[in-house]
Design goal:
Strand content: 35-45%
CATH class: Alpha Beta
CATH topology: Alpha-Beta Plaits
Distance between the termini: 21 Å
Number of strands: 4
Helix content: 25-40%
Number of helices: 3
């Protein structure tokens, strides 16, 4: 499994302006074959910091994701907004196990 972790800094008003595009992106991504999990969250201490967590079955699924029409539409929607990716990394992982 691949885990993608990202953080983005959002300018004033960017979250509200991007909310519909983000909802569409999450819904479409979760429907992709090979998507295990896909979510955005706002940092509770910094409302202008977005956390992105994605889980994919393999690198082929992630590669496909980057080529989808909804990814292109999402990037276009964010293009005019003040959004800066500050961290972006992928990790190879097993299926995990309970912490407790």
């Amino acid at each position: 499994m691949l885990i993608v972790l990202a953080e983005a800094k959002l300018g004033e008003g960017a979250l509200d302006a991007a909310r519909d595009a983000m909802a569409t992106m999450v819904e479409a991504s979760r429907a992709e074959e090979g998507c295990v999990s896909y979510a955005y969250a706002v940092d509770v201490l910094d409302p202008n910091k977005l956390i992105i967590v994605e889980k994919w079955v393999d690198s082929d699924a992630l590669t496909f994701h980057f080529q989808t029409p909804h990814m292109a539409a999402f990037q276009q929607a964010l293009g005019s907004l003040d959004v800066q990716i500050t961290e972006l990394a992928k990790f190879q992982a097993d299926d995990g196990s309970p912490v407790m």
